[in-house]
Write a structure and sequence with these properties.
5 strands, 45% helix
Length: 121
């Protein structure tokens, strides 16, 4: 296995689809349906990549990223949202993320991100 990927989304179907695609790319996957649980796990043992829903409870995606930055944890984060990617980037302001993808996304989108990140990591 290449490494661990966290999938953080409150929609079971999104978690299931992402998990399957990511496992086929030879990563281990851990799923979370709450952002606070994912944040606790990241602070304990950071994964190689995080796929994070932007509008998840109890902490929005940007709030999770801010807490990771405060803890000096450098993990590539791919934000997922039903909003347009440009709109999410505007809302993020100066909060940096690896990428923003719109739901619904394609399997090709996920594979391309994983491929780029495997070269980067």
């Amino acid at each position: 296995m290449i490494g661990e990927v966290f999938v953080v989304d409150d929609e079971p179907g999104i978690r299931l689809l992402l998990s399957e695609v990511i496992r086929r790319a030879n990563y281990n996957v851990t799923n979370f349906d709450r952002s606070d649980q994912a944040l606790k796990a990241v602070l304990t043992k950071p994964p190689r990549i995080i796929f994070l829903d932007y509008l998840i409870d109890p902490l929005r995606g940007d709030e999770v990223i801010n807490q990771l930055n405060e803890a000096s944890i450098d993990v590539p984060v791919v934000l997922m949202s039903g909003m347009a990617a440009q709109e999410v980037r505007q809302k993020l302001g100066e909060v940096e993320v690896y990428d923003v993808i719109e739901k619904p996304f394609s399997i090709t989108d996920i594979n391309q991100i994983l491929e780029k990140l495997s070269v980067r990591i």
